[in-house]
Design brief:
17% helix, Immunoglobulin-like, alpha+beta, five-stranded antiparallel β-sheet, 118 residues
Length: 118
C-alpha cells in the first residue's frame, strides 16, 4: 500500500514540475507611433497578450495572429524578428539566444514588451 502512495506522490511531483517550468511574461504597453494620422476613433480597451515562456518556447494564451515579434538585446539591437503566423499557439525561439532580452509584440500602433530570460 505504501508503494502506491509513493508512486502517487512521485506522479504529483512530476506534474508540478511541468506546471512550474512555464513562466508568464509580464508585458507593458506603449504606443509605437503616438501621433495618429487620422482622427482617433472610439475603440474598446487594448487587450494585452498573455504569453508564457518555457525554456525557449513561447506559448500564446491569447492570439497574436499577424503581429510582429522582436527579440531585442541590451544594446537595443533586434537579434530575432518574425511575423507570428495565424493560428500560432506556440513559437520556438532560436537556440542560439541565451541571456536576458526584451520581447516585443507589435500590434498596430501598440508595442507590448517585457523581459525574458533564455
Amino acid at each position: 500500500m505504501s508503494k502506491i502512495y509513493v508512486l502517487a506522490l512521485a506522479l504529483l511531483m512530476l506534474c508540478g514540475v511541468e506546471s512550474f517550468a512555464k513562466r508568464q511574461v509580464d508585458l507593458s504597453t506603449q504606443f509605437v507611433d503616438p501621433t495618429p494620422t487620422m482622427p482617433e476613433q472610439e475603440k474598446g480597451p487594448v487587450q494585452v497578450p498573455i504569453i508564457w515562456l518555457d525554456e525557449n518556447i513561447l506559448y500564446f494564451e491569447t492570439p497574436c495572429d499577424g503581429c510582429l515579434l522582436n527579440v531585442v538585446d541590451a544594446s537595443n539591437t533586434v537579434v530575432y524578428s518574425v511575423v507570428i503566423p495565424v493560428g500560432t499557439t506556440s513559437l520556438v525561439l532560436p537556440s542560439y539566444l541565451s541571456g536576458t532580452y526584451e520581447l516585443q509584440i507589435i500590434q498596430g500602433n501598440y508595442c507590448f514588451y517585457g523581459d525574458i530570460d533564455l
